[in-house]
Amino acid sequence: MKLIIPVMSTLILFFTTLGVVHSAPIKTHVEQFNVVGAPNNENFKQTLQGILTSRLSPDLVQLVEKPDQAELLLIGSYAMFGKIFSLDILIKNMGNGSLIKVFEQGEGQEDVIPALGRLARKIDAELAKLPAIAASPSPLPAASQVTLKDKYVFRTEPLTNNSGIWSSPPLDGVFNSIAMGRTRSSGERELFIAGEQTIRAYLKGIELKLVAEITIPATGKILAIDTADLDRDGLPELYVTIIDREMPRSRVYQFDGAAFVMMAENLPWFFRGIGHDIISRTIYAQEIDNSGKYYGDIKELSKSNARFTTVNPLKLPHPGNIFNFNRLIGASGKDNFVVLDEDGYLVIYSSGGSEVWKSSEKYGGSESFFKSESHSSTRSSRGSNQWSFLEQRIMLLKDGTLIVPRNEGTISFGNIRVFDKHTLFAFEWTGAVLKEKWHTRQLSDYLADYAFDQVSGEVLLLEVIQKPGIFNTGKSLISINKIN
User: Is the pLDDT reported for residue 134 higher than 60?
Assistant: First the structure.
């Protein structure tokens, strides 16, 4: 009897800790793993996800299919270094945003499944410690809005008479860049989107209609697209930034309304368009060196017939590059530069390159990247791949409003980035600080790119709503939102 009493007390305490705190299993979504260093990555991502999912305790976890249904999100990564591998999990509380890290290590392929079992037990132990998770706040009603000034309203009600929101059907594939063409006399608008190998032209009227599609060689990768009409002939040119075998081999197409016509290829620059519309837009260009680093000044692209050259060099302050800057007019009439630095902070520089102001919060965030072979000073002449991530567009509107996106999610170890929600922010430059004017409510899904129609006051978002997996190529979405 003396032995039974302490044993029963221990069991009561154990089950009280494990069971009473959680009156019901926690709604949990397990993401596909990020995989580094393993062959057949795409298959392996889903395999790891499935094995871990099957080993979680059903007494603690109620599995749900979509992240927006979950109270907890499990974000996993796998990395292999020689024969040693590491399995890392972030347990994210969707209610308060708190994170718990859990990991397990192993050696050799034969230990992967046992290690996932050990990892699942560690996750179960962490979940048993959690207090009851309160239900997440209900989403804002359809007609609600978040704004800091009445002048600008990011509307979320259904599209009516060209105000509100319109969304395309899900588009098969992951697309990373969007650009606007002309608005035709019929009212239809030309839209261009690009994935890593494909460019599509759509007409947006009442519906979204695919007009043309082209692909680039398999050795190349499309990083970005921009539109302009540099020769003022009324037909937009499409400036396509392409990396091919570690060097820029960009192209320029003209879209005649029905098909793409290539004007130039193998151009040695990356492109970025800055300006309010196709007619007034400047296309900037920059080179990279053999190690994949941005090289030389930003320059304006000049077009003469089918010949392209660069003029008017523009020296950016470090760490400015072709993809992370814009220009602001200061009180003195001189240009200031706004740059998203390597850590995601917004920095304002004077025309002379000195820092004027820096944000306290981070913005931007992109999954788009290019790789180059980094060369070390050691005996080996070749090092590991260097990953260079692009940044989100910083867009200046006609009234001086500066639009800056923010993607949020997980930046795992190594070069794996996973973003799953985004917000748009609007600022005004007072001459001393960037003052926030408004921001949208946080929306789920990764914002790959966006464009702005200055005439209609609409922002066009290109979102990735499903990441690619073993049985799918992923899905993207175009939405049009009215900003008054």
Answer: no
